[in-house]
Design brief:
Elements: E1 2-6, E2 9-14, E3 18-21, H1 22-25, H2 41-48, E4 64-65, E5 74-78, H3 82-87, E6 97-99, E7 106-107, E8 113-115, E9 121-122, E10 125-131, E11 147-154, E12 157-158, H4 159-162, H5 170-173, E13 180-187, E14 199-204, E15 207-213, H6 221-231, E16 239-241, E17 263-268, E18 272-280
Parallel strand pairs: 5-16, 7-13, 8-18
Antiparallel strand pairs: 1-2, 1-4, 1-13, 2-3, 5-6, 9-12, 10-11, 10-16, 11-13, 14-15, 14-17, 17-18
């Protein structure tokens, strides 16, 4: 199953990339708000599996918004690929480096991203996990049963602010408006041959700058859910950015960063792509 946020309304995406409005198709059993389904995830999943797409319609992809627009918790994981840790001068280990991207940074798969004016804005392609059921002290072997689905994400980062001060300011440096594009939709794990082994790709103005597979993560999706839920409670609709592979601008010699006018394309095999243009911030 694929589901999305189309102009603020929850839709199912059918064969041939057509959209079916959930509120209309369910006769009001489920509302139009994309975030609300996680409180009734099992019921929604059961209903969606019975749906036909006779009343589905073509749609403009530019009208897609972030499929998970208002999670109660957004987690992000740093240094979860050995080659990325190496390129930024860090030693990789299996202790997750966890931070957040504040919720006002969330934007859609085709949204323009305002450049904040700092000179060190970087890209990071990431697999994003969406939690479907409350999870507390979940074992890694059972973790996938708590996952609603997967989507693509960009952990856009302003490195100057990220590393300012006596300790790193990860959450601030990664939370300017538009710094968390997600989409184009959420794909349930059963749609993917192996949800633990997906191809990641990031291109900048047509040039491939990152290319890897999620099977190269130090901590897998199951491991991350187990580690996080051992400390806190994961809530339905929460999202987890799972880390980025090598190829970021900070790791290059000399470093390379995003400028106004750049187009950033983020792709994950079996899920889809984000296409975000960097624009000058107003005001």
């Amino acid at each position: 199953m694929r589901y999305a946020n189309l102009s603020g309304r929850l839709v199912l995406i059918g064969p041939g990339d057509v959209a079916l409005d959930v509120a209309h198709a369910s006769g009001g059993e489920f509302g139009p708000e994309p975030q609300a389904i996680y409180e009734r995830w099992d019921a929604f999943l059961s209903w969606a599996r019975t749906v036909t797409f006779e009343d589905a319609r073509p749609f403009d992809r530019k009208c897609l918004e972030a499929p998970v627009p208002a999670p109660r918790q957004l987690f992000a994981v740093g240094l979860n690929y050995r080659d990325h840790a190496s390129e930024v001068g860090q030693e990789a280990n299996d202790v997750p480096s966890v931070f957040t991207k504040f919720l006002s940074s969330i934007t859609g798969p085709y949204a323009e991203v305002p450049h904040p004016g700092y000179g060190s804005v970087d890209w990071e392609v990431e697999l994003v996990v969406v939690i479907g059921r409350q999870a507390r002290r979940v074992g890694a072997a059972d973790a996938w049963s708590y996952v609603a689905g997967l989507t693509a994400g960009q952990d856009i980062s302003e490195r100057e602010l990220q590393h300012a001060g006596l300790v790193p300011q990860f959450s601030l440096g990664k939370s300017f408006p538009g710094f968390a594009p997600m989409g184009p939709w959420v794909v349930t794990p059963d749609e993917l041959p192996d949800p633990d082994d997906l191809e990641l790709r990031c291109t900048l103005n047509g040039e491939v700058v990152q290319h890897a597979r999620t099977s190269q993560m130090i901590l897998s999706v199951g491991d991350l859910i187990a580690r996080l839920s051992d400390v806190l409670t994961l809530l339905p609709g929460d999202v987890i950015f799972t880390g980025t592979p090598a190829g970021v601008g900070l790791g290059r010699t000399p470093p390379r960063y995003l400028s106004v006018g750049d187009e950033l394309v983020t792709e994950i095999g079996g899920i889809g792509e984000l296409r975000n243009r960097i624009v000058r911030a107003e005001g």
